[in-house]
Write a structure and sequence with these properties.
Elements lengths: L1 H16 L5 E9 L1 H4 L6 H4 L1 H10 L4 E10 L16 H12 L4 E8 L17 H18 L4 E4 L16 H25 L4 E3 L4 H12 E6 L2 E7 L1 H20 L1
Parallel strand pairs: 1-2, 1-3, 3-4, 4-5
Antiparallel strand pairs: 6-7
Helix pairs in contact: 4-9, 6-7, 8-9
């Protein structure tokens, strides 16, 4: 046992001498059913946040990784508004537990927009790009006010098939609206880079095209009112999305 401890101490000393400081992370994932991991057989082990955390733990510059999956099926930016939405208190309840842990970086990983883009059937739908911008800004501003040392990462919402129509109606109109949110996210990141440098970042941007290309293999085929549609990642797709998020988060902490 003493020999093992001695070896570990030597490894730690060697890393210190070479300036290799491992970053500890506390991550709160904010999102909808895709983040939550609906339809998956075992979302506690298969959802994208689980896979993102697993990816990060394997990286040489990363130490401990703790996370909370605050993805809620059907949610829009309206549902996460600090003063009017019902879900923001759940986010702060978790983040408050991380707040005083100054030895770890607090990250908010956000992917919202899928349900905002619906034509009908979700809270606030259809959400215009201007309203989407205002809602996202309200959420980001409150997070920065409550957690001044945090970093916020905004992922581009991923592709869904243009015939998507379940409890809510999306269709091609919704997909077009979803794509209009991406420039909004880019503008927000640019704006915050001057007002809050080093705190608000663009996250994954590759998932949209990835799932458009691989939807038959990595999204569940679901029966809808306009035929079989593709929206939610299966186990393979959730792992791929989690890795994309993990890579984006890694860039942020390395920034």
């Amino acid at each position: 046992m003493k020999r093992v401890i001695s070896i570990l101490a030597c490894l730690w000393l060697a890393a210190s001498l070479h300036g290799e400081e491992r970053q500890n992370l506390n991550i709160v994932f904010i999102g909808n059913s895709i983040t939550q991991g609906v339809i998956l057989d075992d979302p506690r082990h298969e959802a994208p946040p689980v896979k993102a955390a697993a990816y990060l733990r394997l990286q040489p510059g990363v130490g401990t990784v703790r996370y909370s999956n605050q993805g809620v099926s059907g949610s829009t930016t309206f549902d996460f508004l600090p003063d009017k939405g019902k879900l923001f208190p759940n986010v702060t309840q978790v983040a408050d537990q991380f707040k005083d842990e100054t030895w770890a970086t607090l990250l908010f990983s956000v992917m919202l927009g899928t349900n905002d883009s619906a034509c009908s059937g979700t809270n606030g739908a259809p959400v215009s790009p201007d309203t989407y911008r205002a809602n996202m800004k309200t959420i980001i501003d409150r997070l920065l006010a409550l957690y001044p040392a945090c970093k916020i990462v905004l992922h581009r919402p991923v592709w869904y098939s243009p015939n998507t129509y379940n409890g809510a109606r999306y269709m091609q109109e919704g997909l077009d609206r979803l794509q209009s949110y991406y420039p909004v996210l880019q503008e927000l990141v640019k704006d915050y880079s001057t007002r809050y440098p080093g705190q608000v970042f663009m996250g994954d941007t590759e998932g949209f095209a990835y799932f458009e290309k691989h939807h038959q293999e990595e999204l569940f085929p679901e029966k809808g009112n306009a035929g079989t549609f593709y929206l939610h990642p299966n186990a393979k797709g959730a792992a791929a999305l989690g890795e994309l998020w993990g890579k984006a988060l890694l860039k942020v902490i390395d920034n």
